[in-house]
Specification:
The protein is mainly beta. The protein has two domains: 2-44, LysM domain (Membrane-bound Lytic Murein Transglycosylase D, Chain A), CATH 3.10.350.10; 77-200, Immunoglobulin-like, CATH 2.60.40.2360. It contains two helices and 15 strands. It has helices spanning 11-17, 22-29, and strands at residues 2-4, 42-44, 63-64, 70-73, 77-82, 85-91, 95-96, 102-110, 116-120, 126-132, 135-139, 151-155, 160-167, 176-184, 194-200. The strands form four sheets. It has a six-stranded antiparallel beta sheet, with helices on one face. A hairpin with a 5-residue loop joins strand 3 and strand 4 (70-73).
Length: 202
């Protein structure tokens, strides 16, 4: 869910209020200086009670299905809650100059009180794909090598794993809006995709 910073708030107080940690808030919001948050700033916080209403003032789309999945889409931010994990993807901004690197962050956080196990077929943990009007134009894993061995990773309650990657579209990419889709490739959650939209323009 999203929280609007009020006068006198600190990251520590916000973390205590929502039953999380300062480091989790830093990771989810890509905060560079935890001592410099501003009144009115929007902070993403793990929502431990996904049955309650999310603040509709910030939501552009809202859906809850039988898998207890919560999904909210905005321009350069998307998240879902599945199998006890809050999975967030965002870019550092929503508009880029031609040739400018696009920084993509994907975070998964265990928001339950129990360990969550994730099974992987190889050393690959995530996948990112960029689309131009439905046509795939970039795949993060292309031309990358991964260790070919199965592994089970355990996320303890409150633990987050953060993946930061860069798409370098190049100056030859036309101006327009592009969709970046990302997901965690663990067997238990690989069907759940996140989408963010970025604009490339002069």
């Amino acid at each position: 869910m999203r929280y609007r910073v009020k006068s006198g708030d600190t990251l520590y107080e916000i973390a205590q209020r929502f039953g999380t940690t300062v480091q989790t808030l830093i990771d989810l919001n890509d905060i560079q200086d935890p001592d410099m948050i501003e009144v009115g700033q929007i902070i993403i916080v793990p929502d431990r009670d996904i049955d309650r209403d999310i603040d509709r003032d910030f939501d552009e789309d809202f859906d809850r299905d039988v898998e207890r999945r919560v999904e909210v889409r905005t321009k350069n931010f998307d998240y879902t809650v599945i199998n006890g994990l809050l999975i967030v993807m965002f870019t550092n901004k929503d508009s880029y100059a031609p040739g400018e690197n696009i920084k993509v962050t994907l975070v998964k956080t265990n928001i339950t009180n129990s360990p969550v196990k994730l099974s992987y077929k190889s050393g690959q943990r995530i996948e990112l794909v960029a689309y131009d009007s439905g046509r795939r134009i970039w795949t993060w894993s292309a031309n990358r090598s991964f260790v070919q061995s199965t592994k089970v990773i355990t996320l303890e309650p409150g633990q987050s794993l953060v993946y930061k990657e860069i798409w370098s579209p190049g100056a030859e990419i036309d101006e327009g809006v592009y969709r970046i889709q990302g997901w965690n490739v663990a067997k238990e959650i690989s069907d759940y995709r996140l989408d963010v939209f970025v604009r490339i323009e002069e």
